[in-house]
Amino acid sequence: MTAQPVLSARNIAKAYGNIHALKGVNFDIHPGQVTTLFGENGAGKSTLMKILSGVVKPTSGEIVLDGAAVTFANSTDARNRGISIIHQELSLARNMNVRDNIFMGREIIGRSGVDFAEEERQTRLLMAELEEDIDPLTPVEELRLGQQQIVEIARALSVNSRILIMDEPTSALSATEVEVLFKVIRDLTARGVSIVYISHHLEEALQITHHAVVLRDGAMTAYAKRSEIDLEWIVRNMVGENFDLGSPPEGYAMGETALSIENLSVPDAAGVGFSVVDRLSLSVKAGEIICIYGLMGAGRTELLECVAGRLAPSGGRVMLQGRDVAGLTIAQRIARGLVLVPEDRQRDGLVQTMSVGQNLSLASIGAFTKGLFTSRKAETAVVAEAIRKVTVKTDASGAAPIGSLSGGNQQKVVIGKMLATNPKVIVLDEPSRGIDIGAKAEVFRLLAEGAKQGLAVIYSTSEVGECLSIAHRIIVMHRGRISAEFDHTVAKEKIMAASGEAVAH
Amino acid sequence: MSSTPKPNTKQGFDPIALLLEGRAFFALIAIIVVFSLLSPNYLSVANFLVMASHVAIYGILAIGMLLVILNGGIDLSVGSTLGLSGCIAGFLMHGVLIESAGVILYPPVWAVVILTCTMGALVGFVNGALVALFKVPAFVASLGVMYVARGIALLMTNGLTFNNLSGKAELGNQGFNWLGFNRLGGVPIGVLVLATLAILAGLTLSRTAFGRWLYASGGNERAAELSGVPVKRVQITVYVLSGICAAIAGLVLSSQLTSAGPTAGNSYELTAIAAVVIGGAALTGGRGTIRGTMLGAFVIGFLSDGLVIIGVSSYWQTVFTGAVIVLAVLLNSIQYKPKANA
């Protein structure tokens, strides 16, 4: 016997311009059950989530709530109908206390202003329901992350949410906090609240879910009950048949060691004494391509940023062509041929106020400054060459504003900017993040071509399909250390197992 | 968050966009036309040159301010630095008593100019170091320096004014008046100084690596740093340049007045910021041009002088200036409003 679904997605599709973020997704959310969305980055999970919570409207298809088709005007409208979302980045005012956060924007007004006593009483009730011992008057910033999440849940419950969407709720939690969260989720479902759960931790999600929806490149590839599926089934449907992202370039001799990382440690940003990169050693030859795979928090970004000079190491050293780069600034490292393409291109890669051409020439502008002034001719040549080489879809002068390009082309600009400095070693942090599959293939082709000409390439990824493309070697990172090393013939499941994503038997 | 797709037709003639783009220019034209109609004395070469020499002071400050604002900072200390540099110049012109040697040293005018500019650079360096190395917010750092510089000027002079800066022939330090009173080809020297500085700054911004670094670090400091831009050096340099500009403005002003008072340049920093903003620069950094800033300075100068000429009370001038500034910022936020991502 199946109860009527509380919410159903019927042929939901969403397109941004020519990019189809979602293509015809169908599934039901049943009362008192957990439905998990599985999928790699860019598969469309977050778009689907935004549609369900009223943040964006679908291009086509409909949402059926309690048997009737609905359209949400905005997220407040969705919340009023009982659908709340808890984002990965919590939306609490850290400076205010638990009570004020829970009633933020809908304060209980009594005869003489806000009725704090009543708010506090209701907050205590909510906490008692959740069996959490959090005082309503504690400032949120004094709570642990797991407790902050509970506060978010309490806030959602306080508006009588029947459907709670949770985006990567466990990504920053400790194992005990995850246990607490799961207990809360089980209590909630027992009370009839439906949960839509999104997580990269497949094993963890399988413990809690009743239904699985798998997305790949915007399309729903599978939808099944928990009892019918296992881990391998999810991985198979998530990754699918591989789009050809190329193969490791061959037919040339690799050169000498271009970069070697020796026992490198990077302290945690908060400086609490534990290392996000822990005595890690790795070397790459000229012409070699290495892929670093790992989950969020494995220490990939910190490792790469330390190599590039953004973060200071707490131990070990980085040798570029046999010379220690310790103490060199980022600019000096670039001049010696060591460049980084950062993970977040909007935040760290591009200057949004400048044109395509100015962005492309930014890192190499010193090279064509003759005497006092920059040579316009030299700059135009560098820009035109870079646009041609990395195949940016824009006019050759590069005068268009950078914001007018698509994500994939923007990423190519960031890569082109660094390639224009004629580097020996290029380090790329998630170069494929947020770009479509065609642009991915082009980025990888670009890197493979560079390698053939003697460039040493290190790139990181959190999508296992991208490990098995152009990389000669695959390094798996887990908690700041290398947990496994493979050649390019390895199976995907082995890579995932080594990352701690799915525990192999 | 309705995302209407942005049309790709950039070539099309859009009168509103053109008006918005060249608003400072059109504002200046409008001001000239309106005041020419209201007063027969407004539209004459002689009057324009007089007004331009008033604009020179704000304009020179605004050049330095533009560099700082392009970097995403703000320099509130330029008015005080202007006052202080006038006092330093006055102090030097009146002779430095060296007790041990028992002589009074009268430095020649060129040395006075160099020493004053050095002092301006030093004040700017303090600002830059506070902002770049010690991470003090620019607003607070330059606010503090503003008070300190003003205080030093008052201490130096005991609140009095250095009069008669013309120097004496027998002391060999004549010529200070040249900056403020002389003309080359009929154009006041102050205006020529402004033009020279504007051209130099314009070339620096458009044609040198430093200029590109400045725009880049103002637009996105993290990206600039990862692209090898020495962001800290750029940051300190812009404050130093702003300090030098303030010192030059101080020299021109005290030469024009043939006196240097410790309270000179009070609140001029706000006029300079206004000129930069009217010129279309974004206070968030990364956007702005010398051309716009110069137009902005002339808009403010020609407006307030025009109001004086037609006999409007100075209280109303303040109201008008304020309204123009708010309007300019309003238009800036329309022009730079975030565009929906394609």
> What is the overall pLDDT average of chain A?
85
β-strand percent of chain A reads 25-35%
The CATH architecture classification of the largest domain in chain A is 3-Layer(aba) Sandwich
Oligomer: heterodimer
Enumerate the strands of the largest sheet of chain A in spatial order, edge to edge or round the barrel: 6-9-10-3-11-12
Biggest sheet features of chain B: 2 strands, antiparallel
Keywords (chain A): ATP-binding, Cell membrane, Membrane, Nucleotide-binding, Repeat, Sugar transport, Translocase, Transport
Protein name (chain A): Sugar ABC transporter ATP-binding protein
GO molecular function (chain A): ATP binding; ATP hydrolysis activity
Membrane topology (chain A): Peripheral membrane protein
Secondary-structure topology with pairs:
The complex is a heterodimer of chains A (505) and B (342).
Chain A lengths: L6 E10 L2 E11 L4 E5 L6 H8 L7 E6 L2 E3 L4 H6 L2 E4 L11 H5 L6 E2 L2 E2 L1 H14 L15 H14 L4 E5 L7 H16 L3 E5 L3 H7 L2 E6 L2 E7 L5 H9 L17 E11 L7 E11 L3 E5 L6 H9 L6 E6 L2 E2 L5 H6 L2 E4 L3 H5 L6 H6 L7 E2 L2 E2 L1 H14 L17 H13 L5 E4 L8 H16 L3 E6 L2 H4 L5 E6 L2 E7 L4 H8 L6
Parallel strand pairs in A: 3-10, 3-11, 6-9, 9-10, 15-22, 15-23, 18-21, 21-22
Antiparallel strand pairs in A: 1-2, 1-4, 4-5, 7-8, 11-12, 13-14, 13-16, 16-17, 19-20, 23-24
Helix pairs in contact in A: 4-5, 5-6
Chain B lengths: L14 H7 L1 H16 L6 H26 L7 H16 L2 E3 L4 E3 L3 H24 L5 H20 L4 E2 L14 H4 L1 E2 L2 E2 H19 L1 H11 L1 H6 L4 H27 L1 E2 L7 H11 L11 H20 L4 H22 L7
Antiparallel strand pairs in B: 1-2, 3-6, 4-5
Helix pairs in contact in B: 2-13, 3-8, 3-11, 3-12, 3-13, 4-5, 4-6, 4-11, 5-6, 5-11, 8-9, 9-11, 12-13, 12-14, 13-14
